[in-house]
Each structure stands twice: as structure tokens, then as C-alpha cells.
Amino acid sequence: MGDASADQTVRSFLAPIQVGDRCSGVVAEVTRSEVTVTLDGFAARPLGAVGPLDVSWQQRMADAAAVGQRITAEVLAVDLEEGRARLSMAATENPELWAFLKRLRFGQRLSGTVAAIESFGVFVALDEGPDHPVHLGVGFITYPELSWRRLEAVSEVVEVGQRVYCEFLQFDTWNGEARLSLRATRPDPFLGFAEGITVGQRLTGQVTKLVPFGVFVQVTDGVEGLVRLPELSSMPIKAPEDVVRTGEEITVIVTDIDHERRRLSLSLRQA
User: Fold this and answer.
1) What Cα–Cα distance (Å) separates residue 227 from each residue in 21, 224, 244?
2) Angle at the Cα of 66 (from 65 to 70), degrees rounded to 5?
3) Measured distance CA(86)–CA(48) in Å, rounded
4) How far is the CA of 115 from the CAs of 70, 121, 138, 242, 267, in angstroms?
5) Which of 76, 91, 117, 212 sees the fewest Cβ atoms within 10 Å?
6) Exposed, middle or buried: residue 88 (CB in 10 Å: 0-12, 13-18, 19+)?
């Protein structure tokens, strides 16, 4: 009965708290995985939790939080079953940037300048909104969101200093970034091409890449299909290079068209 009563007390305390509210409290513990917080109004045990990437965008967790420190953080989520509120100290550390990012909506068009190209993506300095306290730009484009085509190099699409117009995808609360898509502003070549073909149709294309499970074939500009290893030959083979080479032009048969996942399955064996 005691545990049930305690759990009900926790749920009753957390129930009125909404995502976006600000809560204050005292840091109870700092570990490698989180900062726990005893929230004002509930001293029995810590109900607030700040993840390592929600503590600060500028400082390490050990430098940004200490046991006994009073903090104010924004609520990211409330789990009544677990009896915890997930908090962000970064939100209150950078209120202007946080407020700007929260106002953005999926599909909204944003403009800016490519500020940096890294191995993990492209930073964009947005025309609107404040600067980022750490990165060169508030906007960020992952490589898959740069183009509908498979890229060998980012330079095929963007370069530092280039003006870009992108669609907003989501607010990355961990890094304080606006996740953007450049490809969403351009027509998807797959959809138009897929509407004009049928299963069983012959296509001619160029082999663009060999992988252990098959080969990719470009059948038109911006559209590639996959010929899986068993569909390369009627005879058993160990590797795709036993049958084809990169750059070779081949004729294939369409075996499946997956519009939802944008996948085109092909067969060289059946052709």
C-alpha cells in the first residue's frame, strides 16, 4: 500500500506539468548518463532528469551541473508511469535560440548560407534567428537530405558560401539545431519515373556501384535500382564482379516498384 500511495503522490505532482513548462529545483546527483533534480514542491525524491546532451550546448556535463546547484530547466517530456520529467537546461541557457527553434514548423522554408561542410553533414547559417553558441550555423543538413541522388561528394550539391533554400524537418533539442532538407525543395525524380514503368518492363542502365549483396544500376538521371546477387546470374556466383563491372551498361527487368520506400528492384538474370 505504501508503494502504491507513493506512486500516486508522484503522478499527482507530475500530472499538471506540461511540455514547455519551466521547472526549478536542486541538482541531486550528477552521473555520466544524467543529472537528477529534486524539483521544487516535491522533496521526497528527484523526479527531474537531464540527459547528457540536454545539460548544455557549450559546456561538458561535469562543468555545467554540480550537486546542490539550483537550476531552472524546460520540460521536454513527462512520463507518469516512470514518475519522471525529462528536462533541458540548455533551453534556459540559450532562451533566444530555443524560442526561435520551437517556433519553426515542419515543411517551413528557410534560407541561409552554407557555413561549413563536415564529415557528418552541412551547417547552414540561417538568415533569420540568432547565432548558435557552438556551431557555425543553426541549420544542419545530413547527407541523405542533400539530394535525391546518391552522391560521391558533397561538392556535387553545395559548397561553403553558397546560398541555399531548405525545408525544416525537426528541432534537434540535443544539439540546438534546425534539421533541414535541401532535397525536399526539389522534385523527387523517383516518383515521376516510377509512374511511367511497370513490373516486367525492360530498362537499360549503367552499373554505378558494386556491393556484397548486389549492384546498383542508374536507369535514368537521379534514379537507381538494385539488382540483388541472386538476380545477377542464373548460375551461382560469389561476388557481383563475377558478372558485371562499374560503368558497364546492362539491360535489366523491373521486378518490384516500392513507391513508399522509393526502391526499385531489378533483375539481370531475367533479362
Assistant:
1) 52, 10, 11
2) 80
3) 6
4) 36, 11, 10, 44, 43
5) 212
6) buried
91, three cell numbers: 533551453
Distance (Å, whole) CA 40 – CA 63: 23
Residue range 240-255: mean pLDDT, rounded: 92
Q: Which domains does the chain have, with CATH numbers?
A: 2-93 (2.40.50.140), 96-185 (2.40.50.140), 189-267 (2.40.50.140)
In this predicted model, what pLDDT tens digit does every residue of 38-75 receive, in sequence order?
Answer: 999 999 999 999 998 888 887 776 677 889 999 999 99
Cβ atoms of 176 and 97 closer than 8 Å: yes
Q: Is the pLDDT of residue 1 over 60?
A: no
pTM higher than 0.70: yes
Phi, psi at 174, each rounded to 5°: -70, -35
| Separation of alpha carbons 231 and 214, rounded Å | 8
Runs of H (alpha helix) within the chain:
2-14, 61-64, 89-93, 95-103, 189-195
Beta bridge pairs of residue 177:
172
Q: Give every CB contact of residue 161 below 8 A, 6+ residues apart in sequence.
A: 113, 114
| Ramachandran class of 107: left when φ > 0, alpha when ψ lies in -120 to 50, beta otherwise | left
pLDDT, tens only, 99-117: 999 999 999 999 999 999 9
Query: pLDDT tens, 159-211?
Result: 999 999 999 999 998 888 999 999 999 988 888 888 888 999 999 999 999 99
To the nearest whole number, what is the mean pLDDT of the chain? Answer: 90
